[in-house]
Design brief:
328 residues; mainly alpha; DNA polymerase, domain 1; hpI Integrase, Chain A; 2 domains; three-stranded antiparallel sheet; two-stranded antiparallel ribbon; 14 helices
Length: 328
């Protein structure tokens, strides 16, 4: 068995509904049509694109390692999966290793149910212990957030778009994938208030009232863009070069990340921030202002309050103040 992490792409299969070719490991292809079809079906059934991509990468790397180690699919045993876990430890942090093992375990479950193999060799192999009380997402300070937003030139359409997009992240605690997927019709009136509809991970639909500041920013953007009646069109659209106009194409997550990077650099924000940073900033601000953790959990569409707690950075402010008391 090799002690190195192998990344290989041997066979390629075009699968409807999956963007780009799907890598078919040699070990799977060698087992015939049943194994191949079940392997493909496993990934087709994963709706979330990010999860599917991560699982494809994990499975591809594992089977490439098995191939180099001289294993066939029926020959893979728990000891081999455990040995691969030790290889992963040399390259990845604990959360990534746990994700890789989860992908392998779920894939083998599919192959067992389909009677491609008799047992799941990954069932008893557990990942390294990992626990954390604080998330790793970098968060702008309150002053940095205000500075960045104030520096956006809202006399331009692109500036109005960028402020509205950041506003959604900040005031709804939304994930960037849910925001870039929004349509104009996902901002809608209920009585005298306007609401936003977010399509979160796992196909969950999450609705919440728009903060009055967010409503002002969205109204200003929609009025300037002239897209309020295009209810099926993308809410946040790409710019047409340097013309100042917008296209009909929706922004992607990388588009939004690059925008935030540009805005941070232009405003002099030194904290390394991205799209997820505004989720942390919003949750922390809400809790700082007396909000309840259970309500923040509902607003963030988290299944567990422990996840929401990872975004609570109030303790960092206390720690900074305490350190400042140290002097000779």
């Amino acid at each position: 068995m090799t002690n190195d992490l192998i990344i290989s792409s041997e066979s390629w299969v075009s699968v409807p509904g999956i963007e780009g070719p799907l890598v078919l490991p040699v070990l799977i292809a060698a087992q015939g049509d049943r194994a191949t079809s079940r392997y493909v079906e496993f990934f087709v059934k994963i709706e979330n694109e990010n999860t599917r991509t991560a699982y494809l990468r994990a499975a591809g790397q594992f089977f490439a390692w098995c191939e180099v180690s001289g294993l066939t699919l029926p020959a893979i045993q728990p000891v081999h999966v455990a040995a691969y876990r030790e290889v992963l430890k040399k390259h990845y942090a604990a959360p990534t290793i746990k994700q890789h093992l989860a992908a392998i375990r779920r894939l083998f479950d599919e192959l067992v149910v389909s009677q491609v193999i008799p047992h799941n060799p990954a069932a008893a192999v557990r990942g390294p212990k990992h626990s954390t009380a604080k998330g790793k997402t970098h968060m702008p300070s309150r002053d940095e957030a205000k500075t960045l937003l104030a520096a956006i030139d809202t006399t331009t359409l692109v500036g109005l778009r960028d402020r509205a997009l950041i506003g959604i992240l900040l005031f709804t605690f939304a994930r960037i994938g849910a925001v870039t997927g929004m349509r104009v019709g996902d901002y809608y009136p209920v009585g005298k208030r306007w609401w936003v509809r977010l399509h979160e991970k796992g196909g969950k639909e999450h609705e919440m009232p728009a903060h009055h500041t967010l409503q002002d920013w969205l109204d200003a953007y929609l009025d300037a863009a002239g897209i309020a009646d295009d209810r099926q069109g993308f809410l946040f659209r790409t710019a047409d070069g340097r013309s100042g106009r917008l296209t009909a194409n929706g922004m992607t997550q990388p588009d939004a990340y690059r925008m935030i990077q540009r805005r941070a650099a232009a405003s002099g924000v030194v904290t390394r921030i991205g799209c997820h940073s505004w989720r942390a900033r919003g949750i922390t601000a809400y809790l700082e202002n007396g909000g309840l953790l259970e309500h923040a959990q509902q607003m963030a569409a988290h299944s567990s309050a422990r996840t929401t707690k990872l975004y609570d950075r109030r303790g960092e402010i206390v720690s900074t103040e305490e350190v400042g008391k140290i002097w000779l």
